[in-house]
């Protein structure tokens, strides 16, 4: 999961950087005044910045959702394991107490037989 998220973020960053470089180079070689070209570059840079913020927000939300899902699943699994362990402990505890009581009774009976 995290590997896929890292790859997507890297690809997204690469695409945005490539798009920005292409726009800037295209504007620099366009036959316009410097002031107008700088204004277009600034506008495009702001647009790209806004797009990057938007994509970051989307990716951030997806990561938060996945973390919530994984966290919930982990908590549920941990609770299931805890209940299973407790049930097993209670089951075997009762069996051990029963067996121990039987052994104690047998030992007492043997001791009483030896005393006679």
UniProtKB/TrEMBL annotation:
This is Gas vesicle protein. The chain crosses the membrane at residues 12-30. The keyword Calcium does not apply. The keyword Transmembrane helix applies. Keywords: Membrane, Transmembrane, Transmembrane helix. It comes from the Bacteria. It holds the Pfam family YtxH.
